[in-house]
Amino acid sequence: MSEPPQKQSWLNRTVLGVGLTSLFSDWSHETATAVLPAFLAAIGAGPAWLGAIEGVADGLSSFAKLIAGHYTDRLKSRKPLAVLGYAFTALCTASFGLATQAYQVLLGRAGAWLGRGVRSPARKALLAADVPANAYGRAFGLERLMDTLGAIVGPLTALWLLEATHHSYQRVFFWTLLPGLVAVACFWLLVRERPVAARSKRSFMLGLKALPIPFRRLLVGVGIFGAGDFSHSLLILYASRMLAPGHGLARATSLAVGLYTLHNVFYAGSAYLSGWLSDHVPNRKVVLAAGYVLAGVTAILLCTGTHSLTLLVVIFALAGLYIGTEEALEDSLSAELVPQEQHGMAFGTLAAVNAVGDFVSSLLVGSLWSAYNVQTAFAASAILFFAGGFLILRLRTHN
Asked: Which of 230, 332, 346, 388 has the fewest CB atoms found within 10 Å of its own CB?
């Protein structure tokens, strides 16, 4: 008879399997994403097509997470759904290599992101089911760490492949199939499925209503924070604009990309460290609230409109720290607040709330920056960040 997860070490084959899967899957699609704008330009598609492709894909992924979250709680086995999602993403990403028109890229990206949406709640539910509750922070933090390493390696791989293939975009896209299929194999071979006592037979709306009240209150805090949580691609724009007067446009652009790489390093490290910390404090909501407050401090520093490279290094490092903390702790706190048989629905709903937040924040911050100035845009973010942190601190948990 197998050991119950409470008796096991948290760093087991499922945690390693999910982590390696995230690493290779992100490596695959980040390699493709890095060359996608240049490829679209080469086939005569402009920024409007890129915006449409990303918008449709993100919207489809968010919708799929919400629906898949509901259905994964009704399945006897969640693992095949996750494996199918990873395989579909890998094949659709590689299909860019066959595209000659922008609409074909749109179909491929939409399919890839549909696969991402379908697999996400099942993956998180399987991870939570195979680790003790007192190790949720480390388990979800390690998954985020591995995912972010893939995001760092992917663009570097794309640059190497472009040089090696004399700028053959098709070969770069076909190459992504290798790490994509390795991700599928890691999940299939390493991740275990723990039996859950009861499977939900509720309708979608009843499933939403049945989510615990503390979790629904968590979603309110997450939603308010998310409404100010601007895309970090805006940080690259901010840095390049602030550094251009003193360094020239070309040098400023290179420095901005370097700062973003630094941001990703801090993001990767903080995802695990904040998760570890949350497993060793009396209540993990405090760590999430601290991450939200750190985001507020970052936004206040952005309000200065600084031209100092040193201060920009601090801003990008803080931004990496808070995003890693936010992602690891939202998942682990959700897993703690919701019974295992409802984990799929909980993770799907959390993803949908975050998606709405991403949409609102990008519109809000971008519009305020364009209509007024950076001070107004990031001051609005800071207010929402601190409000989200306050609501998380007031959250009642069972600890």
From this structure: 230
Give the pLDDT of residue 75: 83
> HEC string of 44-72?
CCCHHHHHHHHHHHHHHHHHHHHHHHHHH
CATH of the domain at 117: 1.20.1250.20
Exposure on the CB side of residue 183, measured as CA atoms within 13 A:
31
Nearest residue to 32 (alpha-carbon basis) of 113, 122, 101? 113
Q: What is the pTM of this model?
A: 0.85
* Residues 31, 113 within the same domain: yes
User: What pLDDT score does 2 carry?
Assistant: 44
> Does residue 57 have a pLDDT over 50?
yes
Residue 290 lies in a domain: yes
- Cβ-count burial 203-231 (b if 16+ within 10 Å, e if not): eeeebbeebeebbebbbebbbbbbbbbbe
Q: Using CB atoms within 10 A of its CB, is residue 370 exposed (0-12), middle (13-18) or buried (19+)? A: exposed
Neighbours of 193 (CB within 10 A): 17
Indicate whether 200 belongs to any domain.
Answer: no
pLDDT tens for 205-231 read 887 888 999 999 999 999 999 999 987
DSSP, collapsed to helix, strand or coil, labels residue 10 as coil
d(CA 27, CA 17): 15
Closest CA to 105 of 177, 33, 168: 33
Burial 149-159 (b: 16+ CB within 10 A, else e): bbbbbbbebbe
Structural domain boundaries enclosing 87: 5-191
| 44 exposure class (CB count in 10 Å sphere: 0-12, 13-18, 19+) | exposed
Residues 153, 11 within the same domain:
yes
Find the distance separating the first CA and the last CA of the chain, reported in whole Å.
Answer: 31
Within a domain: 294:
yes
pLDDT at 197: 61
Residue 300 has a CB neighbour count (10 Å cut-off) of: 16
Q: How many residues in the chain?
A: 399
